[in-house]
Amino acid sequence: MHFQAALDLGNAHRFLGNLQDAKTYLDEAEVLAVEMGDVDKIPTATIHHGDWILGSGHLKEAIAKVFQPLLKRNMSDKNRGLMLQSFGNACRASADFGTAKEYLREAIAIAERLEDPVAVADRHGDLGTTFRSEGRFTDAFTHQKKQFVFAKQRGPDGHATDRRHSCPLQHFQCGYHQPHRCLPDRDRSSSRGNGRGHLLQLAVTGGRNGLDVSRFHHQRKAKCHF
């Protein structure tokens, strides 16, 4: 419980762009995993540290020091799928689109095998983003529509019925270069990279760990118990 709370708070801060606070909680999660000697939680923490490094702008470091070494390690299917998703996104950021798609497709296959619909939807969204980066908008639409449909099916309990969550489809309708034109005024800042856009993705799919926005409030209260 303590480990997951620290991990979730670290990711919440990372999504919001609070990188120093994010590192504090992710470091705590890693220390807890090591103290417990948990062979599953240790790579989980390492993967999220890789995401933090990637989010801080150090792409080559994230690939060379985290994701490439992890690729050679034995780990649970859940962790391997998570790692491949992160590695795939790092490859997309470095314009290695072929490798990115390979890793993301494998990550989707793992999530399907584990019957984890949240991860399946999330990874289809990332694969769609990779196709979009290549300029292959039809393929991008195919995959991002799967994420959107899943979000819509989750309904109010999945925080997915707000009109903001139609923005992946609206981006296609309006053109990728000016997506903010399709957003309500209060949400335009989300399309400009201030961190709130990540929370929209988190609300749509529940995030990589099955996390949803409602859990943030509970875990923020739990901070005093760490």
Q: What does this 3D model show about the protein?
A:
The chain is mostly helical. The chain is 70% helix and 0% strand. The protein has one domain (2-225): Serine Threonine Protein Phosphatase 5, Tetratricopeptide repeat. The chain has helices at residues 2-15, 19-36, 41-55, 59-71, 77-93, 97-113, 117-134, 137-154, 167-174, 196-205, 213-222. The relative contact order is 0.10. The model is unreliable at 159-207 and 209-226 (pLDDT under 50).
End-to-end distance, in Å? 11 Å
Pattern of helices and strands: HHHHHHHHHHH
**Tally of separate helices:** 11
Rg estimate, integer Å? 17 Å
Q: Count structural domains.
A: 1
| Mean of all residue-level pLDDT scores | 78
The fraction of residues assigned to DSSP E strands is under 5%
CATH superfamily: Tetratricopeptide repeat domain
The main sheet comes to: none
- In the CATH scheme, the class would be Mainly Alpha
SS elements, strand count: 0
Indicate the structural class: mainly alpha
How does CATH name the architecture? Alpha Horseshoe
Low-confidence stretches: 159-207, 209-226
- The residue fraction in helices comes out at 55-70%
Task: From the 3D structure, determine the CATH topology.
Answer: Serine Threonine Protein Phosphatase 5, Tetratricopeptide repeat
